[in-house]
# Entry
Amino acid sequence: MNNSSSQSPQADAAEAVRADIEHTRHQLGQTVEALAAKTDVKARAQDKVTEFSGRVSGSLAAGKDRAVEVGKHAGKVLSDKASTGNLPEPAQQAASRASSFVRKYPGQIAAAVAALIVLRARRRSR
# Structure
């Protein structure tokens, strides 16, 4: 009996050591995973590209919407100016051509304006 009671503290100590080893292995595994993620340059670069792409897409969409609004407004203003007769004949013709161009190609004009907005934003960030 004396012998079995002396093994119990040893068994408890061995079990505590095993639990400590398992806990250390788990922490070491997490540390290795974190280090592997930090050294995976390709994945980190792809994450940055995805993040930047999302920001640019949002900016382009907002810029396109704004450009379409401005284009429609400009077309209306040009059309109104051309129809009032307050402009000289060459200006009326130019306004009429510009107005029909804006109505015919609103998407292309919006894309051009959005591209200008992106270029301006990039220039400001440098």
Q: What stands out?
A: The radius of gyration is 35 Å. Residues 1-5 have pLDDT under 50 and may be disordered.
